[in-house]
Amino acid sequence: MSQYRVQNPATGEVVETFETATDQQIEEALAQAHDAYIGWRERSIQDRAAVVRRVAELFEERKQELAEIISLEMGKPLAESIDEVEFAASIIDYYGVHGPGLATDYEIPSTIPGKAVIEQRPVGALLGVMPWNFPYYQVARFAAPNLVLGNTIMLKHAEICARSALAIEQIMRDAGVPVGGYQNLFASHDQIAEIIADARVQGVSLTGSERAGAIIGEQAGRNLKKAVLELGGIDPMIVLDADDVAEVAREAWGFRVSNGGQVCNSNKRLIVMDDIYDDFVAELERLATGLEPGDPLDLSDGQFTPLSTREAAEKVHSQVQQAVAEGATLRVGGVLSDGPAAYYSPAVLTGVPRDSATYRQEIFGPVATVYRVSSDEEAIALANDCDFGLGGSVFSTDPARAKRLSDRLEVGMTHVNTIAAESAELPFGGVKYSGFGREMGPLGMGEFVNRRLHFIAE
Ligand code: NAD
After folding, report:
1. For residue 202, what are the contacts with CB-CB under 8 A and spacing of at least 6?
2. DSSP type of residue 201
3. What is the dihedral of CA 422, 427, 431, 433, to 10 degrees?
4. Distance of alpha carbon 202 from its chain centroid, rounded?
5. Between vectors from CA 436 to CA 260 and to CA 160, what angle results, nearest 5°?
6. What is the spatial distance between Cα 4 and Cα 2, in angstroms, rounded to a whole number?
7. How confident is the model at residue 254 (pLDDT cuts 50, 70, 90)?
8. C-alpha 171 chain-centroid distance
9. How many CB atoms lie within 10 A of CB 339?
């Protein structure tokens, strides 16, 4: 089902459906986005930043309501939903506060007579195509810096995030973003292609799978539009040694199963040194044993949430089954519930053969996949034997040894003794099939900017 809707993954019940936009509505949206840009870019950056700070305040004020929407839509535990809204608000506020300072004009020395200034100017109307796994955070990363810069936004959210998509649009309107400045579009994929081709649109940012990234990137290239692609990952977490192996295993497990394991930079490959491997896996098995399905809106200890859709749960199940058929061992979990609910019990998988099809795939669900290695060289070779390159981490009691290894990771974000550092000021993005471009932090302001040369001859 590709229709925009709210469908509770805990029950499979379709709660509400929404009409896909007509071509006429898309044309009106394009016209409004362009018209709004003409006015929005003329306002001072301080003025735009003040509106964006108000957006952040409204996210905070409506936290509970916003959180309940996504827990129902895509099954996130309510406590994690609240964390997400708070994080989105902090990112939006970061650009409201620091954005103007990050977009200032600056002079560069000129060898010919005159004054050369690099100006940072908006480019126009932009299209965002966003996934369901963090419905607010993903939009915040893209929309906030661009609104401060003076660009306008058309946002196509995932089909299962219709209510959160509308709630964001309402906040933008209530905060004072002008008509056409931020528009939600319930657009079809064909309409997205038309929007990218339209001369009034200057760029597109997609967060999603590499499959969608390749399609959108191709459409952008054909139409000479700038694109930012934030795609998937199979991030390595290398554990060389530990004072308390079980403690590191608990950290690995907590991150791997958060958000139902549906996190782009989740530690999807746990690469563990031979002498601590058995203890590490034993702790994961203990953590994965005896878990029961629970209600995302009212979750108790020992319970897990559904995946985003029945389709997603079936896909994860079939990937794990394929891994087992290829020689891997499913140690615990990995049980698909009866339909139409989307529960899949958190699993521990070991012994995935390096030459299997599964080895190269992202499993977008709560599956801890563990590999045994016997040297630092073997660990880094395995970590880099991957088509993706989003993030990665190395754990050791010797931070210098961990740093030496992390320096060799082919990824966009490396970490020592933490899995993933995330905060409004820290840039996010990858290399290889994980895409290109960066969001968040100072670099997040730099993607859809006209760095215009202004030269005054002497
Ligand atoms: P998806 O690619 O199926 O969908 C993402 C968005 O793209 C949705 O809005 C979808 O409707 C749209 N889309 C898909 N095909 C399209 C087409 N042909 N034309 C126009 N729009 C199209 O991804 P998903 O399943 O929603 O999200 C999961 C994926 O996103 C995972 O691979 C995950 O790793 C990745 N992800 C990456 C990041 C990051 O920052 N790098 C963050 C979150 C998720």
Report:
1. 123, 124, 125, 126, 151, 225, 226, 448
2. E
3. 60
4. 22
5. 35
6. 7
7. very high
8. 21
9. 11
- Mean pLDDT, the chain, whole residue set: 98
Q: Contact, 84 vs 70, CB < 8 A?
A: yes
Does position 233 have pLDDT exceeding 60, yes or no?
yes
Nearest CA to ligand 1 atom 43: 264
Q: Which of 4, 23, 11 is nearest to 130 (CA)?
A: 4
Q: Which residues are catalytic?
A: 230, 264
**Is 437 within 8 Å of 228 (Cβ atoms)?**
yes
Residue in 154, 145, 180, 163 with CA at minimum distance from that of residue 56: 145
Q: In the CATH scheme, what architecture does the domain 236-424 have?
A: 3-Layer(aba) Sandwich (3.40)
Please give the radius of gyration of the chain, using alpha carbons only, rounded to the nearest integer: 23
Residue in this structure with the two tokens 């931070």, named with its chain if needed: 399
Instruction: Give Cα 228 to chain centroid, integer Å.
Output: 12
Strands 347-350 and 329-332, bridge-based pairing: antiparallel
All structural domains of the chain with their residue ranges: 4-231+435-457, 236-424
Average pLDDT of the segment spanning 157-174? 98
Q: Which residues line ligand 1 (CB under 6 A)?
A: 129-133, 156-159, 189, 192, 206-209, 211-212, 215-216, 230-233, 264, 362, 364, 390, 430, 434
- Position of tokens 């034993």? 282
3-state helix, strand, coil in the chain (%, to 5): 40, 20, 35
Cβ atoms < 10 Å from Cβ of 67: 24
> Which pLDDT score, from 0 to 100, does residue 1 have?
52
In this model, does residue 205 exceed pLDDT 60?
yes
* DSSP state, residue 398: S
Query: What's the CA gap between 353 and 118, in Å, rounded?
Result: 52
CB 342 within 8 A of CB 309: yes
Q: Which atom of ligand 1 is nearest to the CA of 132?
A: 26
Q: 327: phi > 0 → left, psi -120 to 50 → alpha, else beta; which?
A: left
Whether omega before 135 lies within 30 degrees of 0, making that bond cis, reads no
Q: What is the pLDDT of residue 339?
A: 86
Q: How far is the CA of 246 from the centre of ligand 1 (A)?
A: 34
Range 439-450 average pLDDT = 97
Structure tokens at 312: 């997603």
CATH number for the region 4-231+435-457 comes to 3.40.605.10
- Among the atoms of ligand 1, which is closest to the Cα of residue 219? 19
